[in-house]
Write a structure and sequence with these properties.
two-stranded antiparallel ribbon; 13 strands; 24% strand; 30% helix; 6 helices
């Protein structure tokens, strides 16, 4: 069975208690396309929600080995939306890139990809477009896709409508290729074309999957790449 890992996100209740969570919409979308969803929990004994980025300890060898074990079990990984990513998330991304595991970054996940091996460059949205819509069942603004990109090869269109649920946007990127921008010039899509599938989008294709063809194309291309990775991984374990 195809196994897709999803890194858990961090949040807290009104009374201050913290928890890790997996979006049910993302879980259902991945399961509907035939994948088993493997939640990837953080490995350090630390309050991930309230600890500042510069206060995290380095991962121990034991913690890195746990991550390595998990990554050996999956065929693709989704870095989903949320409110915060940590050095742990960045390490998981680093290892996925090194192992060439198919990667889909969504919203905050795309922002995580954008600062791979670099500083975080983000600014608060302040444009004529509403980038934080309230209704899940609509597409709210235009995105322009570059023709010389893997994302264009997947969708086959230079302009599409997308949903939008973010208050901040990335402003720079040194590793990934920018492949999509919004009408107001914000970065909406990035990719690393030298790998089987390594794409980040600022919108949420898992939310609009049921009613938007372009969202389905992205999810299904990611699933197909994960199947190809699974097949190559299986072949590498077969000895003659």
């Amino acid at each position: 069975m195809l196994t897709i890992g999803v890194t858990l996100r961090y949040q807290k209740f009104e009374d201050g208690r913290c928890f890790n969570y997996l979006s049910d919409r993302l879980r259902r979308t991945l399961q509907n396309v035939g994948a088993y969803v493997f939640p990837i929990a953080p490995v350090q004994d630390v309050d991930y929600m309230n600890t500042k980025v510069d206060e995290f300890n380095e991962l121990t060898d034991k913690e890195k080995n746990i991550i390595e074990h998990i990554l050996n079990l999956i065929d693709g990984i989704v870095f989903p939306g949320g409110t915060k990513f940590t050095p742990y998330d960045r390490y998981v991304l680093e290892r996925c890139i090194e192992k060439e595991i198919p990667i889909l970054g969504i919203c905050l996940g795309m922002q995580l990809l954008s600062c791979y091996n670099d500083k975080v460059y983000m600014e608060k949205n302040d444009t004529f477009i509403n980038h934080n819509q309230e209704n899940d069942n609509e597409l709210t603004h235009l995105v322009k896709i570059k023709k010389d990109s893997k994302l264009y090869n997947i969708i086959g269109k230079e302009e599409i409508m997308v949903n939008s649920f973010h208050n901040y946007h990335v402003t720079e990127n040194s590793f990934y290729k920018i492949c999509a921008i919004s009408e107001d010039g914000l970065i909406e899509g990035i990719e690393y074309p030298d790998q089987l599938f390594n794409i980040g989008v600022q919108w949420h294709p898992e939310i609009s999957y049921d009613f938007d063809e372009n969202s389905r194309k992205i999810i299904e291309a990611f699933i197909q790449a994960s199947l190809e990775y699974n097949n190559c991984k299986f072949k590498s374990t077969v000895t003659i």
